[in-house]
Write a structure and sequence with these properties.
By secondary structure, the chain is α/β, with parallel strands linked by helices. The protein contains 5 helices and 8 strands. It is globular, with a radius of gyration of 14 Å.
Length: 156
């Protein structure tokens, strides 16, 4: 088991949550994951990492897979302009590689926001630390466990 997957599993177990971690075909995108799971793309809680242009921090926006982050709304939440985060920053801040970034189990504190539209679903799926693993959880529990602020930041 990879270190990344182990961190996610440990975070779930520490929280007293028993959830199904599934191995899938390569699921680097929300659509890949939805296809592998046989669900709608919006049931995928996609981790979008942006870089704070002032702080230099990686900032996580957890959004429904079929949605797009509104950069102006996201910047207002973050309190700074946002730009693209590179692979090195993402790995250093979260401990995960692009395509496997989980909303939980980060190696460093990361400011996080959770797309309010995900709350409409009974269950959502998220990366479990690798591009081949996902886990399911009620969206309210996922936001709480991720310590993410529920907010509106998707394009209309």
């Amino acid at each position: 088991m990879s270190k990344s997957l182990k961190r996610v599993r440990t975070a779930l177990e520490t929280a007293g949550l028993i959830t199904d971690i599934r191995e899938t075909a390569l699921s680097r995108t929300a659509q890949d994951a939805a296809d592998a799971l046989g669900c709608q793309v919006d049931h995928i809680a996609e981790s979008i990492i942006l870089r704070g242009e002032i702080s230099g921090e990686a900032l996580l926006f957890i959004t429904a897979g079929g949605q797009t982050v509104d950069l102006d709304a996201a910047a207002a939440l973050a309190g700074e302009p946002l730009g693209k985060a590179d692979a090195a920053l993402i790995r250093a801040q979260t401990g995960f590689a692009i395509g496997g970034v989980s909303p939980i189990g980060h190696v460093n504190e990361t400011r996080k926001w959770f797309d309010r539209s995900l709350l409409a679903f009974d269950i959502v799926w998220a990366a479990a630390g690798t591009p081949h693993h996902v886990f399911a959880l009620e969206p309210q529990k996922m936001a709480l466990l991720a310590q993410a602020e529920v907010a509106d930041f998707i394009t209309a």
